[in-house]
Amino acid sequence: VLGANLGNLLATDRIVFFPWRRRPSLDYQIVVDVMRFEGDLGGEVSLIAHYYIWDAGDGEEGQRRIGTWKSSFSRQTGDDSYEALVATMSELVGDLSREIAEKIKNASQ
Question: Domain with 68 in it: what CATH number?
């Protein structure tokens, strides 16, 4: 879902997921480590993630770290249904996607 969101937000279909058979030509590499992603029916949902963005450059020697970030998002579910829990979790993934996309847009300017 995160990859699809980034593709839409960055207007590209060139999203490649690791592992790959052979290293594709990359503009940026994003590594996301989800530390916490949980919620309770009728309660709060939280997403905490560390992520790193690399300018892929010209292969391994050309890589340059653009930055490292820790993000934390939380939101109350609308009600105590599983549908509300899943919808809220999806919203938080959307928040993380928008934040990462903004960092990539800023890096490419």
Answer: 3.40.50.10610
Q: Kindly give, in sequence order, each residue whose CB lies less than 8 Å from that of residue 75, ignoring residues fewer than 6 positions away.
A: 44, 45, 88, 91, 92
Q: What is the CB neighbour count within 10 angstroms for residue 68? A: 10
Range of the domain at 66: 2-107
CB neighbour class for 56 (10 Å; exposed up to 12, middle 13-18, buried from 19): middle
Q: What is the pLDDT of residues 39-73, one digit of tens each?
A: 999 999 999 999 999 987 755 556 788 999 999 99
**Cβ(35)–Cβ(48) below 8 Å:** yes
Q: Spell 76-87 as b/e; 16+ CB within 10 A means b.
A: ebeeeeeebbee
pLDDT in tens, 64-106: 889 999 999 999 998 999 999 999 999 999 999 999 999 999 9
Q: How far apart are CA 36 and CA 92, in angstroms?
A: 12
Domain count, the chain: 1
